[in-house]
Write a structure and sequence with these properties.
This is Trifolitoxin immunity domain-containing protein. The protein is of the alpha+beta class. The chain folds into two domains: 60 residues, Phosphorylase Kinase, domain 1, CATH 3.30.200; 158 residues, no CATH class. 46% of the residues lie in helices and 14% in strands. It is built from seven helices and nine strands. The chain is globular, with a radius of gyration of 19 Å.
Length: 248
């Protein structure tokens, strides 16, 4: 007679970033609930693996609880420039450019320029020893324009109304990230940053009012609105300084 024993698998909850869903680590894999963009993200990650793109987790399928399975990438996210090393901003720009170049003209991009990550903030970037090594949380990836992805990264990596970061340092970080990515029209980059901030503020304000969402999600939305509006005010108030750095 055979005796069957259920294997207990330890799940370690991963925290950090701005995503409110549960993400767990099991061994050398990460599992999370599949969102509406899971199918497209799986195709993108599978393609990126096929071409040797080194800055994303590998997609391993779906587990018995209908969760996506991804490879675990050791490291940490960051929320302040003091946690990032020399050259980190330029490297971040190069990683994003590599993604855009790899998908430019590909069927996955449809009629758009390329596939964009959609949420390439430092809270969705794994760092090791102060340097970015991979983008995670690909649920927002989609066909889109290079500039909207670059502007979002530029904002979330470089602009910080909280944290006591001198504006001159923020401007220098912005220039380094832009230089890492490559040539882009400076005025258009600033304008797109402001547009992305306005879009986030508007969408999260709607979430904050949506009583169908739980209290934690609504509170997170309120915080996101304040974040976007405060950073937008900083950009508008220091546009000349930011442009001067980009034009140097």
């Amino acid at each position: 007679m055979l005796a069957w024993h259920a294997e207990l698998v330890a799940e370690d909850r991963l925290t950090g970033g701005r995503n409110t869903r549960e993400v767990v680590r099991i061994g050398e894999t990460v599992r999370h609930t599949r969102g509406s963009g899971a199918g497209f993200a799986a195709r993108v990650l599978t393609f990126l693996e096929s071409i040797g793109f080194a800055h994303a987790p590998r997609y391993l399928g779906v587990d018995e609880r209908d969760r996506d399975i991804l490879t675990f990438i050791p490291g940490c996210t960051t929320d302040h420039p003091s946690q990032r090393g020399h050259g980190a901003y330029g490297m971040g720009g190069r990683i994003l450019r590599e993604l855009h170049d790899a998908t430019d003209g590909h069927a996955l991009a449809g009629t758009q320029e390329c596939v964009i990550h959609g949420d390439p903030g430092p809270f969705n970037t794994i760092f090791r020893q102060g340097q970015p090594v991979a983008l995670i949380d690909w649920d927002s990836c989609r066909p889109g324009r290079r500039l909207e992805d670059l502007a979002y990264m530029s904002w979330t990596w470089c602009i910080q109304s909280a944290g006591n970061v001198p504006i001159e340092h923020q401007a220098e970080h912005l220039r380094e990230l832009r230089d890492g990515y490559g040539s882009v029209e400076t005025e258009l980059l600033i304008d797109m940053m402001l547009l992305r901030q306005a879009e986030i503020a508007a969408s999260e304000a709607a979430n904050a009012r949506n009583l169908a969402l739980d209290r934690v999600r609504r509170q997170s939305a309120e915080e996101a609105v304040a974040w976007a509006e405060n950073d937008s005010a900083l950009v508008r108030g220091n546009r000349t300084t930011l442009l001067a750095a980009l034009l140097r």
